[in-house]
């Protein structure tokens, strides 16, 4: 809630505009807050420094606050390859609808619901999240969630392109399945101009995608068919879906690619749950799993969960080629 407060007040952007460092007095003045709130803001900032959202420096009895890599992602208006503003992701996560769904978890556990089991969000609010019906619940929430998920999913594309250059080497064509407005596909084509890239998404998404001619857009349903390519990319898609649905999606992807000998593969970018990256990263992965449990029918998966799904969908082998932060890059072979 302190983070929500800081984001809503625009504290990260204010610190950035003040030259990257600010005292609580500077913040109160630049945000036009009443002077009487100064000691209260100091307490909020103290908590956010301790939780790693901001950095601080003390000299004598004067304390100043600085952005760190985390709060830099909350600054608005930054034009940088590795920056996508996470404000909407924070505001969605702490929205009344998410929080009420999370608070209803024990009641949800006690109900003997008929499969496919609706998420606590869907059970409480009557509509699924990220669905065409979600705006009927609250159109402002829906817009924040759509923008927040896009910001979250687009984060670190630059890092992935740098760290996983070989992933796309030698590929002639690629379908980005559920590629949204084509941001990822355009980044891939920019780094590998010879790849013919197709973006598959629902008609209502493709309708508004920016068509600059660099990628080809196809409106469709991945449960019915996926446009054929040498490789299919599924980036942060499967964690929204149940195991049964993941198998169905992957079966369509398998039909869309040639044999392994001809370079056919599915590239999956998702969390691979596990403690190997240390307790902080593991906790972040598990919190993302709770986010999925409360709000979607999907989940985060460990390597065994992934293997089981790949084999059920008829694939013969897979390789975890890289870990990029909390996410893993997996190649799956027909
Ligand atoms: C979480 S986003 C995917 C993120 C994207 N891959 C990225 O990395 O930025 C989910 C996307 O799946 C699309 N989608 C949902 N159901 C679909 C379906 N049946 N067929 C095709 N696209 C679908 C949504 O419209 C949305 O753009």
From TrEMBL:
Single annotated GO MF: O-methyltransferase activity
Tagged with keyword Transferase: yes
Residue ranges of every copy of the O-methyltransferase C-terminal domain listed in the record: 105-316
Source taxon at top rank: Eukaryota
Domain O-methyltransferase dimerisation: 1-76
Catalytic residues as annotated in Swiss-Prot or TrEMBL: 239
Pfam family, one: Methyltransf_2
Gene Ontology annotations of biological process type: methylation
Keywords, comma-separated and alphabetical: Methyltransferase, S-adenosyl-L-methionine, Transferase
Family from the record: Belongs to the class I-like SAM-binding methyltransferase superfamily. Cation-independent O-methyltransferase family. COMT subfamily.
Protein name per Swiss-Prot or TrEMBL: O-methyltransferase
Organism: Digitaria exilis
């Amino acid at each position: 809630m302190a983070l929500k407060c800081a984001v809503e007040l625009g504290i990260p952007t204010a610190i950035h505009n003040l030259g990257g460092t600010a005292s609580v007095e500077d913040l109160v003045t630049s945000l036009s807050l009443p002077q009487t709130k100064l000691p209260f803001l100091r307490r909020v900032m103290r908590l956010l420094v301790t939780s790693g959202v901001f950095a601080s420096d003390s000299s004598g009895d004067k304390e100043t606050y600085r952005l760190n890599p985390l709060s830099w992602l909350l600054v608005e208006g930054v034009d940088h390859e590795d920056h996508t503003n996470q404000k909407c992701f924070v505001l969605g996560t702490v929205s009344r609808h998410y929080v009420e769904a999370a608070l209803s978890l024990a009641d949800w556990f006690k109900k003997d619901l008929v499969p496919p089991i609706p998420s606590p969000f869907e059970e409480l609010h009557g509509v699924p999240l990220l669905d065409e019906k979600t705006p009927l619940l609250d159109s402002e929430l829906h817009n924040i969630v759509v923008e927040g998920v896009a910001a979250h999913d687009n984060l670190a594309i630059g890092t992935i392109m740098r760290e996983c250059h070989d992933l796309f080497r030698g590929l002639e064509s690629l379908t980005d399945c559920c590629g949204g407005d084509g941001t990822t596909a355009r980044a891939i084509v920019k780094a590998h101009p010879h790849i013919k890239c197709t973006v598959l998404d629902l008609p209502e998404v493709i309708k508004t995608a920016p068509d600059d001619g660099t990628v080809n857009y196809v409106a469709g349903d991945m449960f019915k068919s996926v446009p054929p390519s040498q490789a299919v990319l599924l980036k942060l898609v499967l964690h929204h879906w149940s195991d049964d649905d993941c198998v169905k999606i992957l079966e369509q992807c398998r039909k869309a690619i040639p044999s392994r000998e001809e370079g056919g593969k599915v590239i999956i970018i998702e969390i691979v749950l596990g403690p190997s990256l240390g307790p902080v990263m593991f906790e972040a992965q598990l919190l993302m799993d709770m986010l999925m449990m409360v709000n979607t029918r999907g989940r985060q998966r460990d390597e065994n969960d992934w293997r089981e799904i790949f084999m059920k969908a008829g694939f013969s082998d897979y390789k975890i080629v890289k870990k990029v932060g909390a996410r893993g890059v997996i190649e799956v072979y027909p």
